[in-house]
């Protein structure tokens, strides 16, 4: 009998979305949306109302918040977008925390030699600021924001995923997220995707078309192990 001493197949790179995947940012994002809405005397939204609006970037989130409270023209959206960003940047990690099990899963990936990346539709400067505020920066090989690749090149475009692969030195990879943007970007780049049922879902998680679904980070490593041998 010949013994195979090579390690079990696994991914060289695992990329993650940020909001609704690694971090529960809903409280701070809802506060920023409500700050903008209150400035023009609009009714405020609950955190649960804001959650499905998250994932396409701050402007997209705000536009949906305004649509839900009466709509607005582009000039008003531009003005309020700046107000939202200013408020959010000044209060970026008041309520934001990693999801349960996030840090343990990242530790396990790092121990296996996996290069870990963030690819988010949040502005890169804000992504870096919140990650740094939570003392997580050292965990990631790269952080790519919605504006990193230029206008119109955030997820669901595969361009930020390709950039992740390049910055991480290439190799086999998977992508983990909570929105249709994440799944579409990952698949367009040829990567298997994992959807988080606990995230800021815009639609039922089963409709995202991901290759696997997890209900918590305790399931991430075994799920990636199964995907790696497909």
UniProtKB/TrEMBL annotation:
Q: Where is the active site?
A: 17
Q: Which Pfam families match?
A: HAD_2
Q: Name one GO biological process term.
A: glycolate biosynthetic process
User: Which GO cellular component terms are attached?
Assistant: cytosol
Q: Where does Mg(2+) bind?
A: 17, 19, 178
Q: What is its EC number?
A: 3.1.3.18
What cofactors does this protein use? Mg(2+)
Q: Which UniProt keywords apply?
A: Carbohydrate metabolism, Hydrolase, Magnesium, Metal-binding
**What is the top EC class of this enzyme, as a single word?**
hydrolase
- Key word Protease present in the record? no
Supply the InterPro entries for this chain. Answer: HAD-like_hydrolase_sf, HAD-like_sf, HAD-SF_hydro_IA, HAD_2, HAD_sf, PGP-like_dom2, PGPase_prok
The UniProt catalytic activity note for this protein reads:
2-phosphoglycolate + H2O = glycolate + phosphate
Q: Name one GO molecular function term.
A: metal ion binding
Which pathway does the database say it acts in?
Organic acid metabolism; glycolate biosynthesis; glycolate from 2-phosphoglycolate: step 1/1
Xref: NCBIfam families: HAD-SF-IA-v1
Q: Which PANTHER family match?
A: PHOSPHOGLYCOLATE PHOSPHATASE
Q: Which family does it belong to?
A: Belongs to the HAD-like hydrolase superfamily. CbbY/CbbZ/Gph/YieH family.
Write out the function statement from the record: Specifically catalyzes the dephosphorylation of 2-phosphoglycolate. Is involved in the dissimilation of the intracellular 2-phosphoglycolate formed during the DNA repair of 3'-phosphoglycolate ends, a major class of DNA lesions induced by oxidative stress.
UniProt name for this protein: Phosphoglycolate phosphatase
């Amino acid at each position: 009998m010949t013994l195979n001493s090579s390690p079990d197949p696994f991914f060289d790179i695992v990329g993650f979305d940020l909001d609704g995947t690694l971090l529960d940012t809903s409280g701070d994002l809802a506060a920023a949306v409500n700050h903008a809405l209150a400035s023009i005397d609009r009714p405020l939204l609950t955190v649960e109302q804001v959650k499905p609006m998250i994932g396409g970037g701050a402007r997209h989130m705000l536009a949906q918040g305004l649509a839900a409270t009466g709509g607005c023209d582009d000039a008003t959206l531009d003005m309020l977008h700046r107000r939202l960003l200013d408020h959010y940047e000044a209060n970026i990690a008041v309520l934001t925390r990693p999801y349960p099990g996030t840090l343990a899963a990242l530790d396990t990936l790092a121990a296996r030699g996996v290069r870990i990346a963030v690819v988010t539709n949040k502005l890169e400067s804000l992504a870096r600021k919140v990650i740094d505020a939570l003392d997580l920066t050292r965990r990631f090989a790269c952080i790519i924001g919605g504006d990193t690749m230029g206008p119109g090149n955030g997820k669901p475009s595969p361009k930020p995923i390709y950039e992740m692969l390049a910055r991480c030195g290439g190799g086999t990879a998977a992508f983990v997220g909570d929105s249709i943007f994440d799944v579409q970007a990952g698949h367009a780049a040829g990567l298997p995707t994992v959807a988080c049922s606990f995230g800021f879902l815009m639609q039922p998680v089963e409709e995202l078309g991901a290759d696997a679904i997890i209900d918590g980070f305790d399931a991430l490593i075994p799920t990636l192990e199964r995907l790696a041998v497909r």
